[in-house]
Amino acid sequence: MAVTDEAIEKIKGMIVSGALRPGDRLPKESELAAELGLSRNSLREAVRALSLIRILDVRQGDGTYVTSLDPQLLLEALSFVVDFHRDDTVLEFLAVRRILEPAATAMAAARISEAELDTLTEQLDALGAAPSVEELVACDLEFHRGIVQSSGNSVLCSLLDGLSGPTTRARVWRGLTQEDAVSRTLHEHRAILAALRDRDAEAARSWATVHIASVEQWLRSTL
């Protein structure tokens, strides 16, 4: 194991064991290096690597702290990696979304408030019957984000937020090239909302699956 990898594992071990907790300040570099049996250089490299993936927060002139370790913060690294996807992997991202998002939508059926449902309805009403593709896709992203946030699962929400990027271009292209894409999307959004208002988890799951699968099927037909 490379010395930097060893240093990362040792710091990780301290966090997992509870020796370092969210928000804790790390000991001074010289003290921590001696405690872990590491060189100061390898410790610095480990701290730099862990700060990039939001495990540690290096504050100039103050010290190094363990972050909140909140899922949304940690999964920002996923969004960064996802941005490097190749066009031929978009179908795989859509397949993952088709697995996760209907489950989140079903979970939201029991949790989403009437006020949140009213907000989603108002957003759809504001679009009108013939929005531009750009307006529709922007609303689509906010629509699904709002529902997933209501699932009450922050990890699921962060995962889906990170996965949304690669599918955005596909949704825009579909809107520009498929004749009924706008009307279908609006109809499916209304159906999802109706199922959520009825607190019908299975209907919400089914409509979310239909909604995502329609983009997936269109994309397959164009490849």
General description of the model:
It is built from 11 helices and 2 strands. By secondary structure, the chain is mainly alpha-helical. The protein has a two-stranded antiparallel sheet with strand order 1-2. A hairpin with a 3-residue loop joins strand 1 (56-59) and strand 2. Helix 6 (90-108) packs across helix 8. The longest helix is centred in the C-terminal third of the chain and has 24 residues, at 154-177. It is elongated, with a radius of gyration of 22 Å.
Structure in a nutshell:
This protein is mainly alpha-helical.
Question: Mind sketching the topology for me?
Answer:
Blueprint: H1 3-17, H2 29-36, H3 40-52, E1 56-59, E2 63-66, H4 71-74, H5 76-82, H6 90-108, H7 114-127, H8 133-149, H9 154-177, H10 181-197, H11 201-222
Trace the largest sheet across and list its strands. 1-2
Average pLDDT over all residues: 86
| Number of helical segments with 4 or more residues | 11
> SS-based structural class?
mainly alpha
Helical content band: over 70%
SSE topology string: HHHEEHHHHHHHH
Strand content: under 5%
Radius of gyration: 22 Å
Task: Spell out the key features of this protein.
single chain; 223 residues; mainly alpha; two-stranded antiparallel ribbon
